[in-house]
Amino acid sequence: MGARALPCFNPGVRRLSYLGIVSALKSEATCLMNLRFPVYRVVNIGDNTKLCLSSIGNDAARGAALKLCENGASALVSFGVAAALNNALTPGDLVLPEAIIQDGGSLPVDIAWRNRLAHRLSPHLTVTGGTLAAADVPLTSRQEKIALGEKTGACAADMETAAVAKVAGEIGIPFIAIRAIVDPLEFSPPDALLSAVHPDGNVDLIRLIALLIKRSVSVKTLIHLGLGMHAARTTLGKVVQVAGITFANDSLH
Length: 253
Hints:
The chain contains 8 helices and 11 strands. The protein is an alpha/beta fold. The protein has one domain: Nucleoside phosphorylase domain (Rossmann fold, 3-Layer(aba) Sandwich), CATH 3.40.50.1580. Strands 1, 2, 3, 4, 5, 6, 7, 8, 9, 10 and 11 form an 11-stranded mixed β-sheet that branches. Helix 2 (58-70) packs parallel to helix 5 (161-171).
């Protein structure tokens, strides 16, 4: 039903094919284009590549994916960070999942495209496959991560990829996910800190200072989170440097 409602797939409308990328956070999007732009604006970042910043969450990511398709996307990528669900992954590790799990069901990944990208990146980065799980809410404890990993068999999780994969599956276009680990199994952003983070990942400095004064959040925690994000962004930047912003999607050439 959702696919039929999308004007980009009206056979009477001619549109150019391009790759559509969804990122939730500005810190993720700047690995692709070092320019600030508002949430839900579709921006050109290459001859046949467009980016839409969704903000955090399933509904937001679905909206961004649909918006890209309304503008003619013929392939979709979920690009950003993820949380580790086991001890095998550490900040900066790259996950190119072979399956996406949401509510017990599997969502499609274009395995041929995923494998071409993995082959291109393998000499430069350690690439992990496996399953990526959908998290409905931020994972703020080791116990939550272990529980989700045991339930789904996934090695990592995020809150947006499943929504993008679902749109691609409804429409019948290629999809892959590119996710770098930001927090390991043993460390998660505390609940208190989330109240100081805007949906696009920007920080409310006044709120953050208040949390530090109250000792609801420690400086050590902020340093740990900052190092994790730096490692993840370094990996994402390397992906773009090696593979380019089309991520070796031959169907666009």
